[in-house]
Specification:
By secondary structure, the protein is mostly helical. Helix content is about 75%, strand content about 0%. The protein has one domain. Helix 1 runs antiparallel to helix 7 and helix 8 crosses helix 9. It is globular, with a radius of gyration of 19 Å. Belongs to the DsbD family. It holds the Pfam family DsbD_TM.
């Protein structure tokens, strides 16, 4: 029972990290600038048509988010299954993942550069916008094609999923990450004019956002490397005993 309680308590900080990583992924320099063009593409009108209300982007955006969420959930299940396969070496797996996540964070902080993370392996969905199926396919393509771009954040969450024990919790972490990335996309479609104005104000600060993401990666990597997540889980259980009821 203690293992289950500990896993549940450890899920809370991990889920918080996953949500924040998803939001920062949306705000990253390689995602935020393409949001209006993607919404326009999915609806089959130009950005001007979106701003004038010629066609709503809400339904296409919903199917786009469903598409990328499908990929992330499959990744979460695969990472959890991998972690369960190597359960006896989970401490070693967590420390190895911590080293990798720290390196990814240092890349975002521009302390070291990892060339393939500066590339984009975009996949063309091969369908013009205007249909729900096309938007869903584009979401699938985005999740696969932008992996080099959002890979550091995604790799961090996959590492947490692989070292998190139960498959359901690992999959849930990727679902939370998908929410963090997908909800701002949906809000952008619903409030398109305000969203475009807000994005224009955010763009000058994209480098700062990138460095914040790098700092988060380094902190989480250090927690994986030192075993701080289980220690933090014990502290949560001692401080908030009601968390044990989650198990």
């Amino acid at each position: 029972m203690l293992g289950i309680e500990l896993a549940d308590a450890a899920f809370l900080p991990a889920a918080t990290v996953a949500l924040l990583a998803g939001i920062l992924s949306f705000l990253s320099p390689c995602v935020l600038p393409i949001v209006p063009p993607y919404l326009a593409y999915m609806t089959g009108v130009g950005v001007g048509g979106l701003k004038s209300g010629e066609r709503s982007a809400v339904v296409p955006a919903l199917f786009f988010v469903m598409g990328l969420s499908t990929v992330f959930l499959l990744m979460g299940m695969a990472a959890s299954a991998f972690g369960r396969m190597f359960l006896q070496w989970q401490d070693l797996l967590a420390r190895g993942a911590g080293v990798v996540v720290i390196l990814l964070g240092l890349h975002f902080l521009h302390i070291i550069r990892i060339p393939f993370l500066d590339a984009e392996a975009r996949i063309d969905a091969q369908e013009r916008g205007g249909s729900a199926l096309g938007a869903y396919a584009l979401g699938l393509a985005f999740a696969f094609g932008w992996t080099p771009c959002i890979g550091p954040q995604l790799g961090m969450i996959l590492s947490l999923a692989a070292t998190g024990g139960a498959m359901g919790k690992g999959t849930a972490l990727l679902a939370v990450y998908a929410l963090g990335l997908g909800i701002p996309f949906l809000l952008s479609a619903i409030f398109i004019n305000r969203a475009i104005g807000l994005m224009n104000r955010i763009k000058p600060h994209l480098k700062l956002i990138e460095r914040v993401m790098g700092g988060l990666l380094v902190v989480v990597g250090a927690a994986l490397l030192t075993g701080a997540f289980p220690a933090f889980a014990y502290w949560l259980l001692e401080t908030f005993p009601w968390l044990a009821a989650l198990g």
